[in-house]
């Protein structure tokens, strides 16, 4: 018998395959041993609504995910769209119409049949301006009505007034309502349904007896009998409850809690790698900002911003602030975003010497340990961030120390959040800010409000009547190109260029991408934490809990 | 009680002396980051270990103590003087002046002054140095902390005003100004002393509260408030008792002040 030489990649692939097989077998054995049970975890705030069309907060979004039936689901693990209530779908060439072929024989939790009329009703409700649905807002394109045409009980076509980029992906957020059920939004098509709600205490979800999905062995899903969601804003209490076995999972952990838990129970913690979330620093580039003119000159100079970026030790930010559970950020999108991340971007380089050289080329000089600009002004600015966010406060102090090495004096100021927002969006009375972007969606279309120069969330210089720089005009153009096309290649090319421009110009100095950290009790079977929300219970219908 | 007072004085002298000598006692500056030794346990190099950014905790405790222990009495002095002026005069003048002063005091007392402090802090210019932020924090505490003392002083001054010896002095033709400075103020001294000593631990704790909220002394300068922030997470401190040192110091100092204060109250009585 001849043994073929394997390269390291093949060996790694083989090992992965064996590992996956072992894990799968383990999960199957576990599931066979334990089906049903109650899963318990925390919501960190009170759900503002149970109407899936009006969801605007994390708690309500979690309930929507667990109870809502959708036409198309984004698989949180593969980051690919998968058919759910729709067997198949097709988008027209002009990108304005999407046609669904629906599954038949499905009923809502109260027994009401599911038909194309329910989809039409849901779209009508979703797009009703009076409802102010945040989910509906992302579908709005152009002026005019959205028309839903029921072709048959299992076929429907929805036409939009203008092309909608990433149209199919948006249906991941649309839970279908029943047109005929007297229970309205409480009649659901998802794996669980709301059974009890104690304001300020808990939400109890019970398995939907009419849920349509079955597993590979033909067993009806979900495996769990119920899910108890404790409303608990205090992370310390959540941690203690988890340690005492009163909770089965913590969906998002910070690095400090993660390490403490890992020290005693390494089998329960999961680091899924870099998430989509980023933390960034930006300078105030607003022309009407009430700050000194010479400071505006620094902040509006790409060379200055690049030098600052180069003088920040991102490895230390990741290692010290996030205890190694973060990666230096390369640009606007994290490498975790498999499709949209521009893989040609280079990792940021830390070099105070190069930063000083670049600043010297712009007329800055180091005198007695203090950096001065060409007019003799000492380079000093303040960084503000929100009080109480330990990670940001620590990053600010590390950056303060890093910049001191190139002679820049930084004042770190922590403000309560409303004051911070007021300075950022109303008075523009600030020098620099450290804040983060929480990306819940993979598609860049969701960040139109950040990158368009006319937007209020274009934080370094918001609400520009016309783009004030050539590169911002180019970003505007490219974002509109990607937003007005349904050709993935064309969209990707446009957004790749946006990422390159952002890295060249550094309007946001991206610092780190946090890792997705979670904890799952060994009693939970079938868990496979991922980076996309909801990290630990994205496959809730296939989870089971033993021993409670 | 005598032993208690001696011990209290010794504790205060030791803590204050060590904090004043921080430049010589501390192994490094309070802002020096040992990035390769973050969150380290106590060792020969770092007696109280290092904090999450690798800064020597012993150095930060010494410098933080200096700030809190020197500026809290300054704020207490300011607030006591304001209380003496407003409360003492109101009590001495009586009538409509007393009612106006007490209405203003009640108004100040009804203000949620923690939020007021947060608001004022938020309105401050951002480019102030950490040292200025320290001064401003304690100045604000002093300017806002006079109200309770003013009520006490108003009542005391009213009592003195109605006393026999003041009436006799007034009947003898003593001027109002002389009456106030020579006869009223000296008799308010015990109350003023007591209010001063009461205010010190209150301001230390207030700064600590602001520090925990991240709104006190600006980084990298330490204060007891910013040092106590390490204790806000139950999970993180259980296995690291050395993190309790700032809290132990705070308790010791506040207790010492209270023991000394009891003597002041005895004297006043």
From the structure above, extract its key features.
heterodimer; A: 548 residues; alpha+beta; seven-stranded mixed sheet; four-stranded mixed sheet; 16 helices; 21% strand; disordered N terminus; B: 269 residues; mainly alpha; MetI-like fold; 0% strand; elongated
How is this structure best described in words?
The complex is a heterodimer of chains A (548) and B (269). Chain A is α+β, with helices and mostly antiparallel strands. Chain A is 31% helix and 21% strand. Chain A is built from 16 helices and 21 strands. In chain A, strands 11, 12, 13, 16, 17, 18 and 19 form a 7-stranded mixed sheet that branches. In chain A, strands 1-10-9-8 form a 4-stranded mixed sheet, covered by helices on one side. The longest helix of chain A has 26 residues, at 8-33. The termini of chain A are far apart. The model of chain A is unreliable at 1-33 (pLDDT under 50). Chain B has 269 residues and is mostly helical. Chain B has a single domain (2-26, 50-268), classed as MetI-like fold. Helix content of chain B is 72%, strand content 0%. Chain B is built from 12 helices and no strands. Chain B has helices at 2-20, 22-25, 57-93, 95-110, 113-123, 130-144, 147-161, 164-171, 176-212, 224-228, 234-237, 245-268. The two termini of chain B are 16 Å apart. At the A-B interface, helix 6, helix 7, helix 10, strand 16 and helix 12 of A face helix 5 and helix 11 of B.
């Amino acid at each position: 018998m001849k043994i073929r030489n394997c390269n390291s990649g093949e060996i790694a692939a083989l090992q992965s395959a064996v590992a996956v097989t072992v894990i799968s077998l383990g999960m199957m054995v576990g599931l066979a041993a334990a089906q049903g049970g109650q899963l318990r975890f925390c919501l960190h705030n009170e759900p503002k609504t149970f109407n899936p069309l009006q969801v605007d907060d994390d708690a309500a979004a979690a309930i929507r995910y667990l109870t809502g039936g959708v036409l198309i689901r984004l698989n949180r693990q593969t980051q690919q769209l998968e058919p759910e209530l729709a067997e198949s779908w097709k988008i027209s060439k002009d990108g304005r119409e999407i046609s669904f072929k629906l599954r038949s024989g499905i009923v809502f939790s109260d027994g009401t049949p599911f038909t194309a009329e329910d989809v039409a009703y849901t779209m009508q409700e979703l797009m009703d301006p009076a409802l102010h649905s945040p989910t509906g807002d992302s579908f709005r394109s152009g002026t005019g009505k959205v028309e839903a045409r029921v072709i048959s009980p299992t076929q429907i076509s929805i036409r939009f007034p203008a092309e909608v980029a990433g149209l199919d992906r948006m249906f991941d957020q649309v839970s279908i309502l029943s047109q005929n059920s007297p229970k309205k939004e409480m009649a659901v098509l998802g794996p669980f349904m709301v059974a009890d709600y104690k304001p300020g205490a808990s939400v109890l979800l019970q398995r939907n007896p009419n849920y349509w999905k079955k597993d590979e062995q033909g067993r009806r899903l979900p495996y769990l009998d119920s899910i108890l969601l404790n409303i608990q804003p205090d992370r310390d209490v959540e941690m203690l409850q988890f340690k005492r076995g009163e909770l089965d999972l913590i969906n998002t952990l910070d690095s400090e809690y993660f390490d403490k838990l890992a020290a005693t129970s390494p089998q329960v913690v999961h680091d899924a790698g870099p998430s989509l979330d980023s933390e960034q620093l930006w300078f105030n580039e607003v022309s009407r900002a009430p700050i000194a003119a010479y400071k505006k000159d620094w902040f509006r100079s790409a060379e200055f911003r690049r030098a600052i970026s180069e003088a920040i030790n991102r490895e230390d930010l990741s290692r010290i602030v996030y205890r190694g559970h973060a990666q230096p950020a390369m640009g606007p999108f994290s490498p975790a975003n498999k499709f949209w991340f521009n893989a040609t971007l280079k990792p940021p380089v830390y070099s105070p010497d190069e930063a000083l050289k670049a600043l010297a080329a712009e007329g800055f000089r180091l005198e007695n340990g203090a950096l001065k600009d060409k007019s003799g002004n000492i380079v000093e600015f303040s960084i503000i961030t929100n009080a109480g966010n330990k990670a940001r406060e620590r990053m600010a102090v590390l950056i303060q120390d890093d910049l001191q090495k190139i002679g820049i004096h930084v004042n770190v100021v922590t403000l309560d959040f409303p004051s911070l927002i007021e300075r950022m969006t109303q008075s523009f009375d600030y020098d620099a800010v450290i804040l983060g972007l929480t990306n819940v969606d993979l598609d860049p279309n969701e960040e139109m409000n950040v990158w368009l120069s006319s937007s209020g969330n274009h934080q370094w210089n918001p609400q520009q009547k016309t783009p004030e720089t050539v590169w911002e005009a180019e970003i505007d153009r490219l974002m509109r190109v990607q937003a007005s096309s349904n050709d993935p290649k064309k969209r990707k090319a446009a957004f790749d260029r946006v990422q390159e421009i952002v890295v060249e110009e550094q309007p946001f100095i991206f610092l780190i991408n946090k890792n997705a950290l979670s904890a799952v009790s060994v009693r939970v079977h079938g868990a496979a934490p991922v980076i996309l929300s909801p990290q630990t219970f994205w496959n809730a219908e296939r989870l089971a809990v033993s021993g409670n | 009680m005598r032993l208690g007072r001696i011990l209290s004085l010794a504790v205060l002298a030791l803590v204050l002396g060590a904090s004043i000598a921080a430049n010589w006692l501390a192994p490094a500056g309070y802002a020096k980051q040992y990035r390769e030794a973050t969150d380290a346990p106590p060792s020969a190099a770092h007696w109280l270990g290092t904090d999450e950014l690798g800064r020597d905790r012993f150095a930060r405790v010494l410098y933080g103590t200096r700030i809190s222990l020197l500026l809290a009495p300054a704020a207490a002095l300011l607030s006591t003087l304001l209380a003496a002026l407003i409360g003492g005069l109101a009590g001495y003048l009586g009538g409509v002046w007393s009612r106006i002063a007490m209405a203003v005091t009640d108004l100040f007392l009804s203000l949620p002054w923690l939020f007021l402090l947060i608001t004022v802090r938020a309105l401050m210019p951002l480019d102030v140095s950490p040292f200025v932020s320290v001064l401003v924090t304690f100045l604000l505490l002093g300017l806002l902390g006079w109200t309770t003392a003013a009520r006490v002083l108003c009542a005391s001054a009213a009592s003195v005003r109605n006393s026999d010896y003041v009436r006799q002095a007034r009947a003898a033709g003593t001027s109002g100004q002389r009456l106030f400075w020579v006869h009223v103020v000296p008799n308010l001294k015990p109350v003023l002393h007591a209010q001063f000593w009461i205010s010190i631990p209150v301001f230390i704790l207030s700064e600590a509260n602001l520090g925990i909220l991240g709104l006190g002394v600006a980084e990298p300068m330490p204060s007891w408030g910013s040092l106590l922030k390490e204790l806000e997470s139950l999970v993180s401190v259980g296995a690291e008792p050395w993190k309790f040192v700032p809290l132990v110091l705070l308790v010791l100092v506040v207790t010492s002040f209270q023991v000394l204060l009891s003597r002041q109250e005895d004297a006043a009585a």
